[in-house]
Amino acid sequence: MIQLSNINKTFNTGKPNQVTAINNIDLDIKTGEFVVIVGSNGSGKTTLLNLVSGNILPNSGSITIDGNNVTRLPEHKRSKWIARIFQNPLLGTAADLSIIDNFRLAALRTKAKNLSIGKNDQFKSLVKDRIATLGMGLEDKIEQPIGTLSGGQRQALTLLMSVMDTCKILLLDEPTAALDPRSAENVLRIADSLIKEYQLTAILVTHNLKDAGNYGSRIIQMGEGEILKDIAGTEKQSLHQNELFNWFG
Ligand SMILES: Nc1ncnc2c1ncn2[C@@H]1O[C@H](COP(=O)(O)OP(=O)(O)OP(=O)(O)O)[C@@H](O)[C@H]1O
Prior knowledge:
Keywords: ATP-binding, Cell membrane, Membrane, Nucleotide-binding, Transport. By secondary structure, the protein is of the alpha/beta class.
């Protein structure tokens, strides 16, 4: 689903503050894989997500998504494949708009021409039903501005919104870092079940090694712009948390 070949990304090339954020990375992520990325600060995790999403372009190398060479394709042209959830729950939603209007926008993400979508009662009841699955009671508040909700509530809704339109890839960049432990657990559980239900290919960047152990079908450790470890399958499932801690020893 996602292939990175020989990807390099250097910032501030030729200046004293030049930094190689991604150093010659090859990565092949299969459809339906849920990859967890861990690594110290500055190891290149967010840059990697930015390269996949098209938020930044590589200096060299190629990126393929769903069989399409997207290396030079800007972010908005990749949105038909990709939804992204950020650390800050305020990103990804329009605070002043109601919950239902945010869901309308989400459903229109890749369909700018069909602006009539979501005006009818059928759409409202579909959204209410989906929101009810969160078990947060938010289905009765769909006319309320989304900015009045807590970070955890908002992040849960943002996840649901990401699957309102065509989406094959979910990029999660520390989506729970700003949440309390209970909300964080809830949001990750929702993400995990959406990934399974919609058979999404997902990448989760996290500093939480417990989550890194519990979630995902593959784990990658990054260091200084390179892939240091790449473990999948039963080996990933049996990875003990202590072992993960030792990676950072
Ligand atoms: N836009 C930019 N301009 C200049 N340098 C950048 C830019 N984005 C990232 N970098 C640098 O690239 C390196 C990798 O940064 P990146 O944000 O990808 O790391 P990270 O692993 O996500 O870190 P963290 O865990 O702290 O979020 C760092 O040295 C960072 O300072």
